[in-house]
Amino acid sequence: MMPTDVNPLVCHSPRVTVIGAGKVGSTLAQRIAEKNLADVVLLDVVQGMPQGLALDLLEAKGISLHDRRISGTTDYADTANSDVVVITAGIPRKPGMSRDDLMKTNAKIVVEAAKKAIAQSPQAILIVVTNPLDVMTYLAWQATDLPRDRIMGMAGVLDSARFQAFIAMELGVSVMDVQTMVLGSHGDLMVPVARYATVAGVPITELMDAQAIDRLVARTRNGGAEIVELMQTGSAYFAPAASTCLMVESILLNQSRLLPVAAYLQGEYGLEDIFIGVPCSLSCGGIGKVWELKLTDTELAALHTSAAAVRQNVNRAKEMLESN
Ligand SMILES: NC(=O)C1=CN([C@@H]2O[C@H](COP(=O)(O)OP(=O)(O)OC[C@H]3O[C@@H](n4cnc5c(N)ncnc54)[C@H](O)[C@@H]3O)[C@@H](O)[C@H]2O)C=CC1
Ligand SMILES: O=C([O-])CC(=O)C(=O)O
To answer: Which residues are responsible for catalysis (predicted)?
Structure first.
């Protein structure tokens, strides 16, 4: 018998839709369910694939010990009333390609996915993962007209995690004691801010020489490509899925984690009408606040150079979409 006096607050089970059930999407779905954060709907264009993955994840529930509902679909109607939508749909790069080479194919996919998903879940918070990240997030925002607190891109968390891992390996310390902040675009022009990287509160500038820092910064900038070259068949997905999950968690648990995300800027850092990686606090409403860190002239110039490249690519992407 159905209860007649259901308390919607108690009975609301958060729901996350992941669009694109490929490497990043399916790994993210697994993390969200196994961390017991939300029910998950996996959507893909390939009939049977998201349904099969959802069934596979569901059959592991008794072992991973959670009771989250997991479903797979090709129909956006099944994603209705999601609290968070994550777009991972699109092609990954192959060796020798830059993320920008994915723009033409992925622009159409992301625009369509964003429109259809938000039509079903107008109150959702949208996180874009598809590359080239900063450009795709801008296009998704244009396609949906979401307020800026409810749309963002995932990249800075991943780039910061890589920088964090490389610093820990270099110094032979626990990664848990390392804090990093990578700003700017998700590409060769990203801005790992060495001054704000610390080990147990000690700036890394006190712990290693400038040459070592430059080497780790360069490896961070090349982090995605390093994995693409090694794998030969696609790009990274464990760390990207973990990074996206951290953002989803901060939103669903209203944690206000201070994380670098691609956010829409309206004058912060002297930048306007652009999505680019900056520190933001993420809570149940999405982006609670864009934090303006004090940057040196060199760091700010690097952020502006990064933004100029994103802006150029946004204009190219808009032209591509218009000419189709
Ligand atoms: N922002 C970041 O830091 C990162 C971004 N990425 C990007 O994420 C994207 C996905 O990467 P992977 O999962 O490794 O690729 P993948 O090829 O494993 O999965 C992509 C999935 O998207 C699906 N898809 C294609 N068109 C679709 C549509 N119109 N609607 C729904 N689904 C559609 C495909 O069928 C496929 O299952 C790539 O663009 C990649 O570059 C990957 C890692 C990190
Ligand atoms: O490198 C790629 O194409 C995928 C990605 O964005 C990353 O791993 O950082």
So the answer is: 186 (proton acceptor)
- Whether ligand 2 lies within 6 angstroms of the CB of 161 is answered as no
The reported pTM is 0.97
| 4: CB partners within 8 A, 6+ apart | none
List the residue whose alpha carbon is closest to atom 1 of ligand 2. 224
**Closest CA relative to residue 310, chosen from 167, 172, 131:** 131
Nearest CA to ligand 2 atom 5: 224
Confirm or reject: Cβ of 158 under 6 Å from ligand 1.
yes
Q: How much distance in Å is there from the Cα of 277 to the middle of ligand 1?
A: 20
**Are residue 149 and residue 208 in the same domain, yes or no?**
no
Domain that holds residue 269: 156-322
Q: Do 146 and 160 have their domain in common? A: no
The finding on whether 74 has its CB within 6 A of some atom of ligand 1 is no
The reply to whether 12 belongs to the active site is no
The number of folded domains in the chain is 2
Ligand 1 centre distance from Cα of residue 197 (Å): 30
Same domain, 170 and 134: no
Is the ipTM, as predicted for this complex, more than 0.95? yes
Main-chain dihedrals φ then ψ at residue 299, nearest 5 degrees: -65, -45
Distance CA 60, CA 62 (A): 6
Q: Would you tell me how many other CB atoms lie within 10 Å of the CB of residue 211?
A: 8
User: Would you say 23 is a known binding-site residue?
Assistant: yes
